[in-house]
């Protein structure tokens, strides 16, 4: 009697073990896991920055999963009663390399910026992840301001929107001045 009970218990344990291994294997296989998000993103880094009044907040504008980027153009908008942009801190990111054309115009609460590769360099657009631009805002009054993009364009070497631009995920910045 005990032999039969022990035999049944061992059989049930083996079946349970095989079932657990199967479930574990299926849960770890590529066919059932969520694929890594490969959508185009544009974001401020850091997303939120807190600074004392009259101190700078350095932001990078990052691109993720871009393909064949030839030019970037945008208006970066913020509350000019809370922060001001130092024109000497507008620096194209290393993602571009050295052969670029950059133009920026600063208005109250707005930076109009365009960065593109030089057509004469005979280079294709750039792909991957990287820093498009670095800026520094100085907190001039206590408060909070969102830092957003308006009139955004990201084009390839043919003048078309980069792949994924129609569904781009944008993560805006936020500056808190204390």
Provide a quick synopsis of the model.
This protein has one helix at residues 2-28; strands spanning 41-45, 48-51, 56-69, 71-77, 83-85, 91-92, 100-107, 110-117, 126-139, 143-155, 169-171, 173-177. With 178 residues, it is an alpha+beta fold. The chain has two domains: 1-33; 41-177, Sandwich (Immunoglobulin-like).
- CATH topology description of the largest domain: Immunoglobulin-like
The helix-and-strand class reads alpha+beta
| Mean pLDDT over the full residue set | 82
Instruction: Compute the number of helices.
Output: 1
Span from first to last CA?
Answer: 79 Å
Which percent bin holds the helix content?
A: 10-25%
CATH architectural grouping of the largest domain? Sandwich
Largest sheet: 6 strands, mixed
So what's the CATH class of the largest domain?
Mainly Beta
| Number of DSSP strand runs | 12
The H-and-E topology, N to C, reads as HEEEEEEEEEEEE
Estimated share of beta-strand residues: over 45%
Q: In terms of quaternary structure, what is this?
A: single chain
Morphology call: globular
Question: What integer value in Å does the Rg equal?
Answer: 26 Å
Q: Into how many domains do the coordinates divide?
A: 2
* Unreliable segments of 5+ consecutive residues: 12-35
């Amino acid at each position: 009697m005990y032999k039969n009970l022990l035999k049944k218990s061992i059989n049930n344990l083996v079946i349970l073990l095989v079932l657990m291994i199967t479930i574990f294997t299926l849960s770890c296989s590529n066919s059932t896991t969520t694929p890594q998000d490969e959508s185009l993103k544009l974001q401020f880094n850091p997303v939120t920055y807190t600074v004392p009044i009259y101190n700078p907040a350095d932001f990078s504008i990052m691109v993720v999963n871009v393909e064949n980027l030839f030019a970037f153009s945008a208006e970066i908008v913020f509350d000019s009663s809370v922060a001001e942009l130092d024109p000497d801190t507008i620096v194209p990111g290393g993602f571009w390399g050295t052969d670029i054309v950059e133009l920026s115009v600063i208005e109250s609460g707005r930076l109009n910026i365009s960065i593109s590769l030089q057509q004469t360099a005979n280079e294709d657009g750039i792909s991957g992840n990287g820093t498009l631009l670095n800026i520094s805002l100085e907190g001039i009054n206590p408060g909070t301001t969102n830092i957003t993009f308006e009139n955004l364009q990201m084009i390839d070497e043919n003048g078309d929107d980069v792949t994924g631009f129609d569904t781009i995920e944008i993560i805006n910045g936020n500056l808190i001045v204390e």
